Fold each of these.
Amino acid sequence: MIRTTLVVGALLLGVSAVVAQQDLVKQNQDTMKANAKNLGAMIAMVKGEKPYDQAAVTEGLAQLEETARKLPTMFPDSIKGMNPADSKYEVSPKIWKDKAGFHAKIEEFAKVVTEAKPKITDLDTLKANAPAIGKACGNCHETFRIKKG
Amino acid sequence: MRRIFLGAAIAAAIGLSVYWLLTEPFILSGRPITLAARTPDLANGKVVFNAGGCASCHAVPGQPDRLKLGGGLAIHSPFGTFYAPNISPDEADGIGRWTEANFVTAVTSGVSPGGQHFFPVFPYTSYAHARVDDIRDLFAYIKTLAKVAGKVRDHDVPFPFNIRRNVGIWKLLFFDAKPFTPDSAHSAQWNRGAYLVNSLGHCAECHSPRNFLGGIITAQRFAGGPNPEGEGWVPNITEKELSDWSARDIDYFLKTGQTPDGDSAGGSMVAVIKNTSQLPDADIAAIAEYVKSLPPVVGPPKPPKKANK
């Protein structure tokens, strides 16, 4: 009986661990989508498709800064090679193979966001600083993200 | 019996001669050329350098200076791994001893000064459509850059793909060296874009599917396909996939690497953006107008999504 309970308990733990990992993968996808949504809104302002909106910019930058803070722990070994079910992208195995390189890119991104945040106060300063943020995204996606479709 | 043997020997000799002729670099593709004297336009050479994306492959990897053309980047392909050569003006290891005619022949015909075929990993298949004056300006510009010492290692390409003579056959099948001709039905800006995309920009080299011999499948030009360098997928850049992008969106993407929905370029496109972002605004706008005009083409089917293990 004790043995059965232990086995079932271990199995349940295992299942919930897998579920938790799937949740992490989904959360990461949501975070990246939120980044794109916020940057997309800023790009629309830079292109003149939408009027400058300080509240949206402040909120977007805060979310990007939050991402920079989370990124170092977003890809633990427990979700190595795991991908969201519905995504144009997959993680590159290099995230776990070249941890130092990956973390260097995260630091680069964090630095750009932290430096840009206080500088962006109007359309001109947004135009001057937003491209650097997108560039930092790309510098990491160059090596650590794989396009699937 | 003797007669059969003799017949076979003659057939083999004829076969070998035909192979030899078809694969001879100078007869079909790389006739030695002579160029009249001309003062190069270095500013244009720099535009050509950025439009051609030379730095993406030939800059020394793992360091930030795009103008240090010592080569060494490993380029993976289904046929083996190629290593981008040193094209800095170094006399011993780079192209410092090349003549201008050597350079033009190499870039537009894919034939080395020593009379050998270059492998088509070097996109002379696209550069062949470039204007000779643009290539001459490029040569002059590269000559102004720093000399970088160091010979790059040999390609790691297995038999039979390592036989350079075979590239002669490949060229007969897939190499169309016709110069670019403007289409008078379109604007000057569109034609400038068509020129940059199809010659120097060599966009189709990655954004088109290839057949088992590595030739571009012409009917699906620009329709994307599996990444020839390894994992992942190169997107379709015809209206099939880019219909919700405006020319302005493409323009902004080539300047910044940012898509209209806030996503960023990834993979090899990040290096491409480093080139295109250096181009004059008018050239970026021209490329955008031309790409936006590409009629929708269905690309090869995408692989099914991998489930999590």
Note: The first strand of chain A starts at residue 89 and ends at 91.
Amino acid sequence: MKLSLGPIQYYWPRERVMEFYAAVEQWPVDIVYLGETVCSKRRELRAADWLEVADRLAAAGKTVVMSTLALMEAESERLALERLVQNGRFMIEANDATSLGLSQGKPFVAGPNINTYNPGTLRELRDIGAVRWVMPVELSRHILEGMHKARPDGLETEVLVFGRLPLAFSARCFTARARNLPKDSCELACLDYPAGLPLATQDGSGFLTINGIQLQSADPNNLIGVMPELRAMGIDVVRVSPEPEGTEAVARAFRGCIDGSLTPRQALDAMKPLFPRFCDGYWEGDAGMNWRESVSA
Amino acid sequence: MNPDRMELVCPAGGFPALRAAVDNGADAVYLSLRGETNARNFPGLNFDRKALQKGIAYARGKGVKVYMALNTYPQPDIWAAATQAVDVAAEEGVNAVILADMGLLRYAADTHQDLTLHLSVQGSATTADALNFYHERYGVVRAVLPRVLSMSQVSQVIERAKLDIEVFGFGSLCVMVEGRCMLSSYATGDSPNTKGACSPAHAVRWIETGRGREARLNGVLIDTFKPGESAGYPVICKGRYQVGNCDDTIYAIEEPTSLSTLDILSDLLKIGVKAIKLEGRQRSPAYVGQATRVMRQALDACHANPDAYTPRPEWASQLAGMSEGRTQTLGALHRAWQ
């Protein structure tokens, strides 16, 4: 079982991104997904910068995959995508049907924002060229198990085991809206919220996280408790999604579980001081926001 | 289809609504079989096979087309029901099936080569390349665009797309890119993709409190309505919340409002939109009849003389009266909304 690091979902200053990935070179992760997946206005790093980061991580022994935008709207985004697909060095994680179409015939990863809900779709993806699929976050253990068993040859399965869940994307920017700014002159407000902007219900309960045009869960999804089960299923890759703080500890906790140096309970206890709460409801087929802290023996 | 006309595609949650749509000027109706294979899987809604046959006969008799929406993403436990629904659509001779799932598109394309395929809005294709992917791979001939593009972006898509484009013309407004919104399952376990339901009725609770009437979705407080305030059905994207450290309660995502393209029908015609869809398979026959009648009149006026098209005040007021929160928006079509 391999450990991957998902793309940074937030908008961080260039320096912070560079420092983050310089540190990642030393982390016990096998695969690193890079690039902007949420908003094309986030240009602290240009395409050439991302490829430079990719080269450095590759030199440090990581397998690098370049992730694409989940919501494509403008012609300029398509042109950037075409260049990315043709980079010639790194595989693509396709996150919408535009990138699926452009990736046809090349090996690629079908990302979590591709709707993969049945083995028929797995066969389609493999036929197009996919070598790995990432489970949509709302699917349950029961569906995952069936689909993983039914997957075609040559298609690996990856599961998001830690991180705020990407739940929805819109044409509207909710960060700009919260600041009373139009999207076209958003002043890059997302830079002010390195972990997104919390959205709470009127009774003060944390509910969602606003991240530009994306809405995420309030709390990180955490499947550390079922790592033995994921391994028993034969899941090929588990993914940790970056947060501004604590991501290295999280990656090391999952690595410890994979290596057998930590029990799920020990790994969970190591993460608990870093985050107020987690969620894991989708795993049991329940509301995704629930947290039952199921830890297999 | 006449290139200078846009087809009016109307919702039919049951036979009475189908009849209302047909009688009031629909060019086509869209409907679904009962169950989790469609994105409006609500109790008491949709067609069994007998009702489908009756509906098709009625529509055909008046020269109206019938499309069947099969637009969830069937998980393995309902895969057989989904493919059977495609088979039923083909056997009953519907004019097209409206699909979203790639596995189901493959099944339909391979099994029923004469069946016309449309890509549902739930297919979440927002660019010409994405649409052409579905056209080239599965033979899809029409797609419904997600409500995320501005007018100029819709126009650019149409210029390069190799299939016909249908857009939503009136009704409830999805704020998120359709087909990839999991807000409902995050709060309740059921989503449009998995169960054909957004904000399912079984999860909704209305609670009277000292602060007002609370609308909760599986316990999550979506909004609190003061006495006399009109209370909309609690969907997550139309709730009032607190954002960041601000104590104010705001519509952080979107206000209760409806999409209406009444004012821009001639612009949609000029950029090459081929069909206008009315949202609302969950709506009453009276609503469907009225919305269809107004849009029929508006489209006829628009087709007769696009350059001189101006919506009549009574059309606007009738549609406004049927809108959520009695307000309307162009949504993402109007760049400033974004």
Note: Chain A has a mean pLDDT of 96.
